[in-house]
Amino acid sequence: MQFFRKYRTNYLTDRQGLPIAMSSPVSGNHNDFYNIKLQFEEITDTLESASISVKGLFMNADAGFDSVDLLLACEQKEIIPNIAYNRRNNSQYTERILDKKLYRERYSIERTNAWTDSYRTILNRKKSR
């Protein structure tokens, strides 16, 4: 049986996988990339309003986030994107370099995703009883 999330959020984590900022929930029938520029602005504005500079921040993201919009938004905020290449896109940014060693650090993000999903499952079970 497959369950679908009612809402989706994008969040930024630190190196240990602790969420430090997140976007507002978007209805679950959209993918994680839906309206990414607006969600990215919301996340970075949250950090900046807390007096946390995003300039020079190193950001890992999987191939699902490989888009010109996100790369340009990172460039405007002076964030260094380390986004895996999406082979289905004909990206204009082919000269960018993927740091594979740092990209392997994504396990902390995946661990956070798994923890959030398992917590949500427990919450849903508790609600249904």
Low-confidence stretches: none
Shape: globular
Number of helices: 4
Numbering strands along the chain, what is their spatial order in the largest sheet? 1-4
Note the topology.
Layout lengths: L6 E2 L2 E3 L5 E4 L3 E2 L8 H14 L8 E4 L6 H10 L2 E4 L16 H4 L3 H22 L1
Parallel strand pairs: 5-6
Antiparallel strand pairs: 1-4, 2-3
Helix pairs in contact: 1-2
Organism: Chryseobacterium elymi
Protein name: Transposase IS4-like domain-containing protein
Protein model, in words:
- It comes from Chryseobacterium elymi.
- This is Transposase IS4-like domain-containing protein.
- A hairpin with a 5-residue loop joins strand 2 and strand 3 (19-22).
- The chain is built from 4 helices and 6 strands, in the order ββββαβαβαα.
- It has one domain (7-128).
- It has 129 residues and is of the alpha+beta class.
- Helix 1 runs parallel beside helix 2 (68-77).
- It is 39% helix and 15% strand.
- The strands form 3 sheets. It has a two-stranded antiparallel sheet with strand order 1-4. The protein has a two-stranded antiparallel ribbon with strand order 2-3.
- The two termini are 19 Å apart.
